[in-house]
Request: fold
Amino acid sequence: MDTVLVTGGAGFIGIHTVIALLEKKYRILIIDSLINSSKKSIERLISKNLLKKESINSQIIFINGDIRDVNFLRSVFKKASKSGHIIKYVLHFAGLKSISDSILFPDEYWEVNVIGTKRLLKVMKENNCHNFVFSSSATVYSLDEKSPLKENSSLSPNNQYGYTKLAVEKFLEGLVHDQERFWRIVCLRYFNPIGAHPSGDFGESPLNTPNNLFPYLCQVASKKRKKLYIFGQNWPTSDGTCIRDYIHIMDLAEGHIAAIDYIKSGAKEPFLIINLGTGLGTSVLELVKTFENVNNLRIDYEFIERREKDKAIVYADPNFAKRILNWEAKRNIFDMCKDGWNWQKKNPDGY
Ligand code: NAD
Ligand code: UFG
Reply:
């Protein structure tokens, strides 16, 4: 049983990926500072024991700590090797992700997302661990690029968050260039992950008012918020609202298993950047209508001003992922709306 270190594993994408890793029988070490999540997600995962494994308590280990703390990171690697479970792969989700906060607090974003990642890589190297999967984002693409976005489409983030992601991608590329015989690195550029685990026991659990469309929509559906505010109705799209590439969180999680498999099978390319999206665009109104129809409810919404620096149409070209990782999204927008609402209904206040 190989051991995977999952940073940020208590968070939205992390916990769903941990579920996918469990299914593939990995041993999982989670580190998280819990700055944007709760330990309850992990406690629930252990207590629910979805796969009914006797070994669940030793298969998932959680350690609370900060990726910026080199001594903490060293202790994690040391503990793992002392217990005979050397860390073989690192899935790096830990980071700050709010675009608006990144503009208000750029230092913090660079400190956590860039410096934190560099420290993690340093400690990995000290421990002879060189297999790394990084959570990047479609936000690195230029606003002027037309969708479908390919991995080689032009890059130009328009916020600090995006710059931190691009900076890490470049740092990783340089690392592989200089030390190719060691590193095997996959950067995954996520499009818009939404939805929840079909059990309804795991999902997105924002600690503050959600910035993103889907968690906001779920909270309107559960009457936590009065109405959804749709940013703009005169975009150059068929119904005037923006189009995005929504991807089911479990498809995204499985994309990480595919990335590990790629590294495991010898990683022909030591450094790769890969889009994780469906290749399909859905407008805000289409998402709202689908959510209403699938779940048999009504969403109150109102059109307001466009959001600053928004983009009309963003969706991925998913073909590289298909070809290289042998991975493609299997779930559709109906599944995303059904599973997302199931989670929200069962857990109106999160974990
Ligand atoms: P999340 O906030 O739910 O998860 C991130 C986790 O990292 C949280 O549990 C948080 O407590 C932890 N964390 C933050 N700073 C830390 C630190 N210094 N040390 C240790 N742990 C720390 O976010 P998510 O949606 O699960 O995103 C995971 C990753 O994917 C992030 O790097 C994010 O930038 C990236 N990403 C997310 C999206 C998205 O739409 N959710 C899109 C593109 C990229
Ligand atoms: N929107 C609304 N009302 C809301 C929230 C969003 O109308 O309350 C609209 C936005 O204008 C946009 C669409 O819904 O057209 C999706 O917005 P999100 O904020 O959910 O997603 P974005 O595509 O704007 O950004 C997200 C993440 C970024 C990531 C990017 C990748 O927030 O971190 O996807 O494409 F980089």
Remarks:
- The first helix runs from residue 12 to 23.
- The pocket of nicotinamide-adenine-dinucleotide (ligand 1) is lined by residues 8, 10-14, 32-37, 66-68, 93-97, 112, 116, 135, 137, 190, 192-193 (CB under 6 Å).
- The longest strand covers residues 131-137.
- The chain is about 40% helix and 15% strand.
